[in-house]
Design a protein that fits this description.
With about 475 residues, the chain is an alpha+beta fold. It is built from ten helices and 27 strands. It is about 20% helix and about 35% strand.
């Protein structure tokens, strides 16, 4: 018999009782107990913190679901395209304007698309109601029966299991940046290409309501919505305010690619070197003192001249001076002290020959590395100062040093600068806001895309366990 002569495959008949276990896999909800009510026209899903986002041409809705009735310490974040907004009258006669989404309903291995309205069903015995519109042609209802189909289990909401079955979803992401520079534009461009909504928030235009019960962040007179993730691109000049803002996002349980503590530590060079030393990560010999009487001892600790003198808050190679002789070193140190500047003194690694390696760490991996060389006559290799860059193959030891350095600061994205010395890699700096332009052009990789891979993995629907409300 030819393929054309074969009879069509019929979907098996499915009988539902008044109560059944169902799945909404596209929303990351693998197990829900639903009430099947043919007296109701529309279906309803218990949802809280309902917010719209995305472009007007394709608006989305973001909401939280408590899949287990009475257990409000488990929340699953969901998002979907808005299919409609309509007025629905409940069984008690109250009317409510609800968002309508379309998603796949799965029962006993069979799946079909349904429309679901979003509403707060807190206090209801079932957090999902299946109305007659959601019943496929092959579905019949036995109103006197319950659990006609295989039962599921709420244990699937254990962290390991829910991450395994969680779908990718559209996210609402904030980029904290005061500038529309290349890195910010790339993060917006890549996020939108993946279907996410990416909003650039000027750090200094935010203000905070700090209280124990309902911490909030406001922007230009309006309360900011809930974001799935925040990508901080906080400039050095606003580190203190920017990290305070990040702490507020952290209080709201928002995933921050780089946390406030890591950024604060990375911006303070003395603190940063102390963290590296605590983790036994190789770095150039470093010294710090407050008294001018210790100048000679400082120079001796780092092995004498030539040596490097760095301002503690220097960025992009500014405030970094090479003193080639002992006398020059003493003069520079005296000058910095005269300006009441905080600085440290560091060993000059001659064998590095004015070159360093920038390792870009995302998550727990070095995703790209480039060798940077200083402009002619300049020991600093920063690209902002006219340096050049090329792809470099790093050793296993260098890769390990970069990953350990980023981990020491708790950073999800970091630019780790290291030198090649005769005694192994020496970490110079850990940058919590690494630029994307230079390294993407040099290595030819979509670094912004790799950052989003990490974000999407970290914010997959994992239960957020919180204390249940009182009363």
């Amino acid at each position: 018999m030819s393929t054309d002569d074969q009879p069509p495959q019929l979907t098996p008949q499915l009988t539902l009782g008044w109560e059944e276990w169902i799945s909404l896999p596209e929303l990351g909800l693998p197990a829900l107990r639903a009430k099947v009510d043919t007296g109701a026209r529309t279906s309803a899903l218990h949802a809280t913190e309902i917010e719209t986002f995305g472009p007007a041409s394709a608006p989305r809705v973001r909401f939280m679901v408590h899949p287990i009735p009475g257990q409000y310490d488990v929340e699953i974040p969901c998002s979907a395209l808005i299919a409609d907004r309509r007025e629905v009258t409940s069984s008690n006669g109250e009317s409510e304007l609800r968002f309508v989404i379309k998603t796949a309903l799965e029962v006993a291995g069979q799946s079909w698309p349904v429309e679901v309205t979003l509403t707060d069903r807190r206090g209801m015995a079932k957090h999902m109601l299946l109305g007659r519109q959601a019943l496929a042609e092959n579905v019949t209802v036995a109103p006197a029966e319950r659990m006609c189909q295989p039962e599921l289990d709420y244990s699937v909401y254990a962290s390991a299991d829910i991450r395994r079955v969680a779908p990718k979803r559209a996210l609402r992401i904030a980029v904290l940046s005061r500038e529309r520079n290349h890195s910010t534009r790339r993060l917006v461009e890549e996020g939108e290409k993946r279907g996410h909504t990416v909003e650039v928030i000027d750090t200094t235009r935010c203000y905070m309501s700090i209280n124990a019960l309902a911490p909030e962040i406001h922007y230009d007179g309006k309360r900011l919505p809930r974001y799935d993730a925040v990508i901080p691109r906080i400039g050095a000049s606003v580190t203190q305010y920017g990290t305070a803002l990040l702490r507020q996002f952290e209080a709201l349980h928002t995933y921050c690619v780089n946390g406030s503590a890591g950024i604060t530590a990375s911006r303070d060079k003395l603190h940063a070197h102390q963290l590296l030393a605590r983790q036994k990560i190789g770095m150039p010999a470093t010294a710090f003192a407050a008294s001018p009487k210790d100048t000679r001892s400082l120079i001796d600790i780092v092995g004498g001249a030539p040596l490097i003198v760095k301002l503690l808050e220097s960025t992009q190679g500014k405030g970094v001076v090479l003193a080639e002789t002992r006398k020059a070193a003493e003069s520079v140190i005296t000058a910095f002290r005269g300006l009441k500047a905080n600085f440290l003194v560091q060993q000059f690694v001659k064998e590095a020959a004015g070159e360093d390696i920038r390792c870009l760490v995302v998550g727990s991996k070095v995703v790209a590395a480039m060798k940077r060389s200083g402009a002619e006559g300049d020991f600093r290799s920063n690209l902002h100062l006219g340096g050049s860059a090329e792809v470099v193959r790093i050793t296993k030891e260098e890769r390990s040093a970069a990953v350990r350095a980023a981990r020491a600061f708790g950073l999800g994205v970091a630019g780790v600068d290291l030198l090649r010395s005769d005694t192994g890699p020496k970490v110079l700096e850990v940058n919590s806001s690494p630029g994307l332009e230079g390294i993407e052009k040099t290595v030819g990789k979509n670094i912004a895309g790799l950052i989003y891979d990490e974000i999407e993995d970290r914010v997959r629907p994992t239960p957020l366990r919180r204390k249940p409300p009182r009363g």
